[in-house]
Amino acid sequence: MTFSIAAAAKAAKKAARGYSSLGSQAKNALLTEIAEQLIEQKEQILIANQKDLDAAQENQIDASMQDRLRLNEARLKAIRDAVLEIVQQPDPVGEISHVQQRPSGIRVGKMRIPLGVIAMIYESRPNVTIDAAALCLKAGNGVILRGGKEAIHSNLALAKCIQVALEKHQLDPNVVVVVPNTDRNVMNELMTLNDSIDLIIPRGGEGLIRFVTENSRIPVIQHFKGVCHLYIDKQADLQKGLSILENGKTQRTSVCNSLETLLVHQSVAETFLPMAAAMFNNKGVKVHACNNSIRYFHEAEAATEDDWHAEYLALEIAVRVVDDFDHAVEHIGLYGSGHTEVIVTQDYSAANEFIRVVDSAVVMANASSRFSDGGELGLGAEIGISTSKLHAYGPMGATSLTTEKFVVYGDGETRG
Amino acid sequence: MTFSIAAAAKAAKKAARGYSSLGSQAKNALLTEIAEQLIEQKEQILIANQKDLDAAQENQIDASMQDRLRLNEARLKAIRDAVLEIVQQPDPVGEISHVQQRPSGIRVGKMRIPLGVIAMIYESRPNVTIDAAALCLKAGNGVILRGGKEAIHSNLALAKCIQVALEKHQLDPNVVVVVPNTDRNVMNELMTLNDSIDLIIPRGGEGLIRFVTENSRIPVIQHFKGVCHLYIDKQADLQKGLSILENGKTQRTSVCNSLETLLVHQSVAETFLPMAAAMFNNKGVKVHACNNSIRYFHEAEAATEDDWHAEYLALEIAVRVVDDFDHAVEHIGLYGSGHTEVIVTQDYSAANEFIRVVDSAVVMANASSRFSDGGELGLGAEIGISTSKLHAYGPMGATSLTTEKFVVYGDGETRG
Description:
- The structure is a homodimer.
- Chain A has helices at residues 5-19, 24-40, 42-58, 63-69, 73-88, 127-138, 152-168, 184-190, 206-215, 238-250, 266-283, 305-309, 325-335, 348-357, 374-377, and strands at residues 96-101, 107-114, 117-122, 142-146, 176-178, 199-203, 228-232, 259-265, 286-289, 301-302, 316-322, 340-344, 362-367, 384-386, 394-396, 402-413.
- Chain A is of the alpha/beta class.
- Chain A folds into two domains: 7-224, Aldehyde Dehydrogenase, Chain A, domain 1, CATH 3.40.605; 228-369, Aldehyde Dehydrogenase, Chain A, domain 2 (3-Layer(aba) Sandwich), CATH 3.40.309.10.
- In chain A, the strands form four sheets. Chain A has a seven-stranded parallel sheet with strand order 10-9-11-8-7-12-13, sandwiched between helices. In chain A, strands 5-4-3-6 form a four-stranded parallel sheet, sandwiched between helices.
- In chain A, strand 4 (142-146), helix 7 and strand 5 form a beta-alpha-beta unit.
- In chain A, helix 5 packs parallel to helix 6 (127-138).
- The longest helix of chain A has 18 residues, at 266-283.
- The radius of gyration of chain A is 24 Å and the shape is globular.
- At the A-B interface, strand 2, helix 10, helix 14, strand 13 and strand 16 of A face strand 2, helix 10, helix 14, strand 13 and strand 16 of B.
- Chains A, B: It is found in: Cytoplasm.
- Chains A, B: Its EC number is 1.2.1.41.
């Protein structure tokens, strides 16, 4: 029997319609069952994962990717715990807000409802299969999961946990579809199914996201890259600036909320840059410096235009001295990726102005860019980060997987 | 000099970046100037409009379209008044909400910001040129306006009012682009400019909307059709039901929030359908009735599957007797277009359940579907109605032309 993505998506849409009105308790019971199945079925999951690991070794896939692929008992427990955390989160669905009485007499409000069916397209990490399914189900949605070919056995074994949980709770199993193969044609067809699928969230490299954006008829959440800036203002508390710089650049380098560019107001450059240079030296951070800052560093390279655009994801940073506040904001507007930007300043007006005018998903005063994720911002688990503005901008939690409809309470009113 | 949509969109993006942080007063002053220019330049506008009308007559364009195209002094004043109303509306931009203190010490909130650049693609009504520009500008956005070829002279004359106002207020004129020709290639290129344009709102027939959806790389707001349902429940107040039916079907037929299908609970069919039949007879409404209701009507036709899908936009209605509440909801789920649905009932639980489970943009209890527009729902002027769920669902006012970014107020916090 061949798999038809069109039929699966249509069935998911139908199942999602029923699932969407399920109450919070029933949804949480389902998620708890999924969490339990992860432990119950751990042997089968680890056997399937070993198949993927063997294939990865055979295909000489690089070590870091093999590591992302690997499951073990501790990682399975971490995946289970993430699901149990989602159970604890509030249910975004059903909230009614902005209720007002209109001159006609009707009362109007907005009610939060599920989006419908969400398709995830992702690469090697098998945990996404469970994380994404759990968040979509929490928000009352159907979900279609299309993982990478490197993780296909792991993903199918994890899918089994979800299917068993759905069956145990007598819910329509079609509400979660794990695409059973990684045929490119299936993905291409998926992107045309705008009658059944409401949103596509690709998670992976820029190539994948661009491919989906350019070929999809379904709205796509885009997250291209995180070129995050730290701007040390004239009135900065330089000690705060230094610890925010150190934390942003060195605490974890491979993540999109790490710092890539340091901008320093010219009037504090002479004091701050030697402090920064000592810390970079100490932590082994490679520097790409502008003409006005290069003399403060031991072994800096001259920064090129490419450096202002670079997402190093490594112990590497671009440094530029700026004339003033406006120059910093202009630089960010030109080279930023819409992810996260930080000002360090004690100047009340400068802090508020930066927050007001900088056009990125997360704009901060006097805090580390590393706080830019769903958990730290208070959203709970995160399904992705949007750096485009439609529907959601920035880290996306369960609420971003919902929308609002208008609800009207009348008493026989008609329009004159 | 040939017009380049790519260059215009790029310039609009740059101009919009500056315009986005303009305060409410400055934006309102600009809008007021546009309103004044409409009266100041009325002669040139009416001369240009006459050119379009002459061409329309020459090309034997149908009378209703010619009427939509026609401007006169009264209509110009109405367009001006609509702009002045937008001036009076609150500015959605800048609002900070959901501020919370996180365990790390940072305070996190969401701030409402403009979307960026919005492209409107529309057909013959020239008033859209001003309405859409005013709403986009109110919300801090740049706008690209591509009207139909029938209205090109009118649109360019109206555009002049906007350009003069922008110049008088020393604002970058590129923030509003009126595409100076109606070349299909220009529109096709526009739909690929996802680096400069954030959202496309097509307003017109289903063909236009489908074409844009299938070809755009930019997110599209879709409004296919309004197949609105009225369900008369077992516990309905039948007098309320009758006046809501009459208002919904007959007050104005050519609009998307008029009723197209009447569903009646079997236990009240015998009482309610003769009341409905008398009103339909009186108002000249043609009926397409199911097997169980046809006997109540004088000259009804038997309803076919097509009737359940029909958007008549005329004095015509489909009528079906349903077994119960669930059957009504199922019918709406199957045949509804996601626009507006109404239940008439005195049963508290049924009213709330209908509002909860029906998956349309506007769901009402005991009120006329004709209230389903931006003005009546309290949004002020409306730029369109979305029947797809991403970003906006239902009537869209100025707030729907914005998004939210995260703002973080820290005091030197770093991540552990």
